[in-house]
Amino acid sequence: MNIKEFKSGVWKKQYQYESFSPSMINHGWVWNDPQINTLLEEATQALAELNAFSLIVPNVDLFIRMHIVKEASTSSRIEGTQTKIDEALMEKEYIPPEKRDDWQEVHNYITAMNFAMESLNEMPLSNRMLRKTHYHVMQGVRGEHKPPGEFRTSQNWIGGTNLKDAVFIPPHDSEIQDLMSDLEKFWHNDEIAVPHLIRIAISHYQFETIHPFSDGNGRVGRLLITLYLVNKGLLSKPSLYLSDYLEKNKGAYYDALTVVRASNDLGHWIKFFLTAIVKTSDKGKLTFQEIMSIRNEVEGKILTLNRKAEKGKLLLELLYSKPLIQVNDVAKHLSITKRPANELVKDFEHLGILQEITGFKRNKMFAFTKYLNLFVD
Question: How far is the C-alpha of 319 from the C-alpha of 300, rounded, in Å?
Fold first, then answer.
């Protein structure tokens, strides 16, 4: 099908409202828009260059946790949570009670991402995996009463307070199974020649339009992007935090999805999506370059600790995945008592690697500020 001939779907009369029934997407796609071709080439190259960093950076898994935390905090923020990345790195006990639900939602996303990434080692991307991922997203948070891990069996809506004033009403729940089955087949259809970045662009639009879960669709739909790219080998690690771009351009993001449903303009959405891939990949490459620069700088400083240098290297490894720490964290991670842990933290302060950020006499918190700032908005 030519993208210009795409009909996004039809409105179907239900009891006292109309729901939108999207067209199936599991078929070939072609286009005549040279701008899509150019953006597709740029996005493919930018993503490949980003992935190259995850292959050449030594011990890259030390840094991937921060990429996941970044993606989790920004994807959740699109849905209205207020947890910033520095708060997401703290233990729950240090979060004000009124913000703990938001904190939990971010950590659920991290758990869901880790679960899904491990699952990809055993099975391809599937609806079964998405349902299990959704289960982890929704555990113990607002909306958990809406069956986590199951496709919805009732009508939901987007915007407004009810079906009467909703901005958009997704398909009736009776259509979910067939629509999601068609979507899964599209991911793995080897009989059609559709580039992966075009497939996941269309897939994300389709998933958000179907809105298959009672809650948590935005988070799972954005997580789907990373899972697809890893499953198809375009990324070796979840190093692309696309939600950062989508959150900063939230109005344009929602508008681009809406334009497809309202005007059948799938090409506009695809171009928005490919631009997001280019911009986010370029930012990710710069982040990796800065990580390597900081790493060379601080490892040189640690060598000046002489006999403490080995312990210093172990502490540095902790800081790459947890750049906000307390002395107890150091003691536990290095299997040492509190006194030498405190001394090592002081050494890191003197070297300018750590800064105390609370001003407290007790329960002090130390930040690897220069590294943390790479991920903070």
Answer: 16
